[in-house]
């Protein structure tokens, strides 16, 4: 079992480019991808992360001592108990710490510790690798004289027939460009603080790398989160692995999240106004879990070890990982972060269609799959039910020459030591799920800028509720639907909701929903033309006095009868600002008006109309138009009778 070095998520084999045309095309993978194989774990130098039970004797003894440290350091006690030379590593919480051992492997020490009654779980402290070592003039199309992709920052604009997966950050910017009070942590290789497109966007951060060889900066943990480069010599990280240049990976991720915008240079970031907190956890050949976990908790403000974090992040971006299940150490830490209101966005991995990488496969994480510009799964992206949604990861389409659809971002030109600060382009391109994740993290930052009370669960649900559906056609004839992950690779395929997440990220829709959900509902007032209509009369219903919130308008009306529908009915349209109700019988009728504003917020009001009976029509005497006899004697009939009697009296007088 390999427990020392963890592999780069997503080696993309160049040989796949030579597959027969009948096979779905392979996409160029991350340029700096590592080999899939890794050397065996060190048989005599163990690194383990352990969590103690809350009621453990060790924890009770720790809390009972007046001089006890505020964190577990139990190497001495366990060393005596197990008769092993153990040393304390960093504390990772109230009941979790790293341990070092001599004379056995990490797997062996983890197994022996897990059997102790004081221990809730113990796992090897493994190494993780980069997922991809893969007015702003580069934002538009056809710029840069052939070096910058002709599509520019296509992935941030509204989708088109050719760029189906574009996320429409431009539409989200109509609501917010991000709050400078909101912080996104980038757990990565550190950043180049001197890059001009990150000026004013970076907070100090911290370097959590303990191992000097991994750190590559001459020291261990310190307050300098700058990236010295992560280059490696041939065979240094793994036997047979070629030498590699520095990736400047953290600088690339930071630029995609929050590069300065409207500054007349370079690119625009997804969340243009938020702050970036660099947390250095990866260096030469990757980084160990103990450093990553410590960095996660510190970034969120859950730990003050080794120093307090004055700028806790609400969102963590982790473009790192490896194959395997979600270990207990990451499971518990992600759960702790979620409980504290922290959203953890993690790249789903670049292992060419294999299972979702860890820690992206941990419950509570926002796992991001990668898609091509046309919306199909990009060849190198992993798949699986743990994916939350998909975002553009960059692809080239062509197999030679300039890359057509990479993701432009900030980087450095140095192969080993830092050199000129530049931008990735058509030849030094950025592709990988490493770069899909920060677009999602930037979108969450926009959402939280509008509603700082947004919980991780609601943020994730909102992202999924506002996605655009995956396309099911438009690719080459050989492209089929993505299948559940197995040990076999799969290249370009049509995403499904069980393989790539709920759908394609729609930044504008997600931000609009947050705005609508948090906005005051419209105020609805109903006017009635007659307060007491009689049966058979028509009543005009109006909406005068109905208003939307500031900056919004009423865009939809809907009238309905909620009670007494047998007594009245609408005559004419029911989706206008007014409506006509025709009554037919006496009784009470309740009418409802529902309105929707321009942000999608809805509200309703009702009114009850009392319909009186129609007046009784008098019955006419016999011989009248109604026919039949009987009934009351009318006044006109009495007048006629009186006139007839007068005539008779006059005739009688004449005869005398």
UniProtKB/TrEMBL annotation:
Q: Where is the signal peptide?
A: 1-26
Against Pfam families, the record matches this protein to:
K319L-like_PKD (PF22352), Peptidase_S8 (PF00082)
Keyword field contains Ribonucleoprotein: no
Positions of transmembrane segments: 628-648
What PROSITE patterns is this protein classified in?
Answer: PKD, SUBTILASE, SUBTILASE_ASP, SUBTILASE_HIS, SUBTILASE_SER
* Highest taxon in the source lineage: Bacteria
**Active site per the UniProt annotation:** 188 (charge relay system), 249 (charge relay system), 434 (charge relay system)
Q: Domain PKD spans what residues? A: 549-611
Q: Where is this region: Disordered?
A: 217-249
Q: Sorted alphabetically, which keywords does the UniProt record give?
A: Hydrolase, Membrane, Protease, Serine protease, Signal, Transmembrane, Transmembrane helix
User: What InterPro entries does the entry give?
Assistant: Ig-like_fold, Peptidase_S8/S53_dom, Peptidase_S8/S53_dom_sf, Peptidase_S8_Asp-AS, Peptidase_S8_His-AS, Peptidase_S8_Ser-AS, Peptidase_S8_subtilisin-like, Peptidase_S8_subtilisin-rel
Cite the SMART domains for this sequence.
PKD
* Protein family (similarity comment): Belongs to the peptidase S8 family.
- The protein, known as: S8 family serine peptidase
Q: What is the lineage of its organism?
A: Bacteria, Pseudomonadati, Pseudomonadota, Betaproteobacteria, Burkholderiales
